[in-house]
Amino acid sequence: MEAKSVISKLPYSKPFLFVDAIEKLDDNGIAGYYTFHKDEYFYEGHFKDNPITPGVILTECMAQIGLVCFGIHLLKDELDKGINIAMSSTEIDFLKPVFPEEKVKVISQKIYFRFNKLKCKVKMLNSQGEVVCNGTISGMLILKGS
Amino acid sequence: MTSEEIYAKLQPIIATYLPEDVSADNINRDADLTQELNINSAHLVDVVLDVEDAFDIELSNNDLETLRTVNDAIAIVEKKVKK
Contact B61/A89, CB-based, under 8 Å? Predict the structure, then answer.
């Protein structure tokens, strides 16, 4: 129930929304899914005749699920006016490629959320359960009008 | 703890989060952390968290709102350490 309302509050839309579903959500962390469809716009050029999901897109997917969806949950009732968000730092290791039509799972755990800054330990798994990338991501979540 | 001692402990913390084009020589008690030293809002939070650890204190949202200059930081720490 809450998962759907969180996704509806995301400030993204196609072709830059990388969240399909949220599986688990509490005050310590989140887990969610996204499937990279073969017609995503970036496969046309990354790479020529050899489509592989760009690392920046994997990072974006991890940030949208692991920080923004999670942050919307953490801010709950204060959210009526919406939020301004900004990624502030990332440190990610990329371990395996993600190909078109792969479904990935993002798992994020809170390191801290203080003074509007959310820092999380985030990892992405493929459908075999292998870690494709992991690291830490931080961002600022500032309520509009504050 | 004197304000001089606090200042000495603050300097290396602030220096860690300075952008590459700002030298640690620019740190002085009157320096504005975000406007003059160019520390962005995300790194300002890192400064605050490191200050909390270094002095074993906890800052509130109100404290953060009063934090502009290095002197403000010294005053906040002085007030909290005394308690």
Answer: no
